[in-house]
Write a structure and sequence with these properties.
This protein is mainly beta. The protein folds into 2 domains: 21-360, Methylamine Dehydrogenase, Chain H (7 Propeller); 373-452, Immunoglobulins (Immunoglobulin-like). Helices cover 7% and strands 47% of the residues. The protein contains 4 helices and 39 strands. Strands 1-28-27-26-25 form a 5-stranded antiparallel β-sheet. A hairpin with a 7-residue loop joins β29 (330-334) and β30 (342-346). The protein starts with a helix and ends with a strand.
């Protein structure tokens, strides 16, 4: 049986290496996966990930079935295995990570002989050393979050202080609010995803209490409130609901925490997959790990119209037309390495190193493009808005970019051609002048000029 599994895995990896991944504005740099001969030691599937940089080198922290792998990804085309921290819990489903100073905090929510690990990363690139491993601080956690020196444990939430000794978290507050599946915290304001109950906003006050200041419940497409991230300006919360599958993510105005307002919903590139975990990306972007549809980069600079900038489908085994909202594929991502290379971990396929620079900072449209096909926008000139007319034979996904004469990108999105037929672009607030429209689909490019009066 083991020999058969090895043959199957090798065939899968050969197919993965030869696979032409479905993608837009995100390119593959390199991959890493456990080899079949090491399945017994490390496991044969993956969960979460995190990133870490030290002394000019970059590392991926990868959740494996039997523990945690530390991978040097300084050269993303050739990831190098550095070390492995074995876990008491084998064949685990859930592992999560955060870093503080030169320590990694490793947790799992699986049953059995579970434990909490604190790992010293200062010995990299040679190795990592376990600074603490045990269950006297806590045994299990679904997630953790670090805000300044505060360490928040998900599940039956507890809050610790890391300032005195990062290897000995000091308990500040025991659970007072019930189960918290995941949380995003900034300046002691906690955006707590509490599953079927919804999302609740708390302030951690005086190191001894949590005050409820707002809630987001009974909203459209509500499910099991899973996770969120807060925009840098603190005004927009991007929220996911994991169960049931195939629910859209939400853009929520939290400028008044006492009155969160849903302002947009959005999906992955197929509109079918389950959006799982959001993470910050550069330049007002959100990186979304979305199970069977891989990973996407969304632009939230206009929170009322979230735009898809790019995607990369790590889970090549499932074609987009077959996506059913299931729970395999891309689990997690990390986008804040100094290189801006993107770390993604797929539950089946392992670590992907990706270049998402075109999605983070798109190249502005240009007027003169060889072999471009001229199209029309109307009315032209216009005062308050216009539409774009594509040739009738164009169908499927297209990328739309609109730039001003300086090359500054005004609009970018990936959508269906039939959506463009109905879309009216509002130019309210745009400066008077000429704008260049560029639409791409595969190797074909369509261009137009729109004058705003």
């Amino acid at each position: 049986m083991k020999q058969l599994l090895t043959i199957i895995f090798c065939a899968m990896m050969l197919q993965a290496n030869a696979q032409e991944y479905l993608s837009n504005n995100i390119n593959l740099l390199g991959t890493w996966a456990i080899q079949p001969q090491d399945f017994n030691k490390y496991g044969d599937h993956y969960s979460s990930c995190w990133g870490y940089a030290q002394n000019g080198r970059e590392y991926a922290i990868v959740g494996c079935a039997n523990g945690t792998a530390y991978i040097d990804v300084t050269n993303p085309a050739s990831p190098v295995f550095v070390d492995f921290v074995e876990s008491n819990v084998k064949d685990a489903i859930w592992r999560e990570y955060k870093t503080y100073q030169h320590y990694a905090y490793q947790v799992s929510d699986d049953g059995g002989d579970n434990h909490f690990d604190i790992v010293d990363l200062s010995f990299l690139p040679d190795s990592v050393h376990v600074a603490y491993s045990g269950d006297d601080i806590f045994r299990r956690a679904h997630t953790v979050f670090i805000d300044g020196t505060r360490f928040y444990r998900g599940g039956n939430m507890k809050i610790y202080d890391l300032s005195k000794d990062p290897t000995k978290p000091e308990l500040l507050l025991d659970n007072t609010i019930g189960y918290v599946h995941d949380m995003y915290v900034r300046n002691d304001t906690v955006y707590a995803s509490q599953g079927d109950n919804g999302l609740f906003i708390y302030e951690f006050k005086d190191n001894n209490r949590l005050d409820l200041i707002g809630s987001f419940t009974n909203y459209p497409f509500a499910g099991y409130n899973h996770s969120s991230i807060l925009s840098p300006d603190g005004k927009t919360l991007l929220v996911t609901d994991e169960v049931p599958g195939n629910l859209p993510a939400k853009s929520v105005d939290v400028s008044d925490p006492a009155n969160p307002i849903l302002v947009d919903t959005f999906y992955s590139q197929t509109g079918k997959a389950t959006l799982h975990n959001p993470f910050h990306g550069p330049n007002n972007t959100c990186v979304m790990a979305s199970y069977l549809d891989g990973v996407q980069v969304f632009d939230y600079s206009d929170p009322t119209e979230i735009k898809l900038r790019g995607y990369f489908d790590t889970h090549w085994q499932t074609l987009p037309e077959d996506t059913d909202g299931g729970y395999d594929g891309a689990w997690s991502a990390y986008a804040m390495l100094p290189s801006k290379n993107l770390i993604v971990v797929d539950i089946t396929n392992g670590l992907y190193m990706l270049d998402a620079s075109a999605a983070y900072a798109p190249v502005a449209s240009k007027k003169d493009i060889p072999d471009a096909i001229s199209i029309q926008s109307y009315p032209n000139p216009s005062v308050s808005g216009f539409k774009i007319q594509l040739p009738v034979q164009v169908s499927g996904k297209i990328e739309v970019k609109i730039a001003d004469v300086s090359g500054k990108l005004i609009y970018q999105n990936i959508l269906e051609a039939k959506q463009l037929e109905q879309k009216e672009f509002s130019s309210n607030g745009w400066a008077k002048g000429t704008y260049y429209i560029r639409i791409t689909q595969g190797e074909k490019t369509y261009i137009a000029e729109q004058v705003i009066l």
